[in-house]
Amino acid sequence: MDRRYRGSLGCSVSLRIIPFVAALMFLSAAQPYCQQSLDLEKQKWIHGSDPCSQNTDPGLQVVQYNATTYILRQNKCLNYEAPFLYLFIGSEKALLVDTGAEAPDASFPLFETVTNILKKKDGASLPLIVIHSHGHGDHHAGDHQFVDKVNVRLVPPVKDSIVAFFKLKPWPTSQTLFDLGKRKVTIIPIPGHDELSVAIYDDTTHWLLTGDTIYPGRLYVRDGGAFRSSIVRLHSFSKTHPVSYLMGNHIEMTTTPGIDYPTGTTYQPKEHALPMGLNVLEELYKSCERMGDNIVYEVHDDFIIVPK
C-alpha cells in the first residue's frame, strides 16, 4: 500500500534577489500565518525559461513545508541540474542537506538565506550542520559559502568524513540516529550511484531523502552490486518505518509516463512531481532483484535506470 502523510503549516515563498533583504523580512513575517496544508504533489517549482535570458525567477526558491522544514530549489537558468536542498530544524540544531550546483554567489545566496531562516528572535542563530546526499559537484558547489562561519559545522563530501562524523561503521551496512533536538534523522549509507551516497529519514515528516539514488529522473548506477544492496536496504527500512514520501534531488521526468527531459534542459514546464510514493521503491526493488548485480537500462513510468 502506498502510504501518504500530509504536513501542516505549509507555505511557499520565492525570494527574489532584489530587494533580497525585503524578501527575507517577508518570509519571516509570513511564517506564523502559513496555516494551510502544503500539498507537495501539486507544489509548483521554478523550472527555468526558454530562453534563459528572459528568466525572471529568483536564483533560489524557498518553500516552507511546515514550521521547521524547508525545501529549496536552485534556478535551472543558473544551473540546469536545478538540485533540491533540504533544511530540517530541531530545537537544538539544524541540518542542511546539500549546497547546490555551481552558480554565482550573488545569484545564489544560500548561506544568507539559511541563516535568516534560522535566526532567533534575539538575533542569535541556531547551530547548523551541513552534510551531503553524495559527493557529486552539483550537490556541494555551494560549500564555500559555509566555510569558517560561526555556528556552522560543514562535513566535507568525503566518505571518511561522513563515516567519522556519523560513526557509520561498518560501512555501508550500519546506520545512525542523529538528534537535532526533539527531532531525529536516520542516516543510511546507500552507495551505488556514488560511493558515499546516503539516505536521510526524518522522523517528523516521515520523508525518506534518497538523493540521486531514487528520484523522478535518470538513476545513474555506477556500481550495480552496491546499488542493488542499497535498494534492498531502503526497502527493508521502509517495512519498519512509516514513510510518507521518497524525496530526491532532481526532477528530470515529464508528466508523461516514461518520458524524460534531455540532459542540459533549462526549461521544464511539464515536470513530474518531486515526491514519490513507496510504490516507486517497491517497483525499483523488484527490478533490482530481477536484474541482480548486472543492472541494465530500463524505462519505468516515474524513473529510468541507467547503468554507467
Concise overview:
The chain has a single domain, classed as Ribonuclease Z/Hydroxyacylglutathione hydrolase-like (Metallo-beta-lactamase, Chain A), CATH 3.60.15. Helix content is 19%, strand content 23%. It has helices at 20-30, 110-118, 159-166, 224-240, 278-291, and strands at residues 11-15, 60-66, 69-74, 84-89, 94-97, 128-131, 152-154, 176-179, 184-189, 198-202, 207-211, 218-221, 245-248, 275-276, 298-299, 304-307.
Q: What features would you describe in this structure?
A:
The protein is α+β, with helices and mostly antiparallel strands and 308 residues long. The chain has a single domain (11-307), classed as Metallo-beta-lactamase, Chain A. The protein is built from five helices and 16 strands. The strands form three sheets. It has a seven-stranded mixed beta sheet, with helices on one face. Strands 8-9-10-11-13-14 form a six-stranded mixed beta sheet. Strands 12-16-15 form a three-stranded mixed beta sheet, with no helix packed on it. The longest helix is centred in the last third of the chain and has 17 residues, at 224-240.
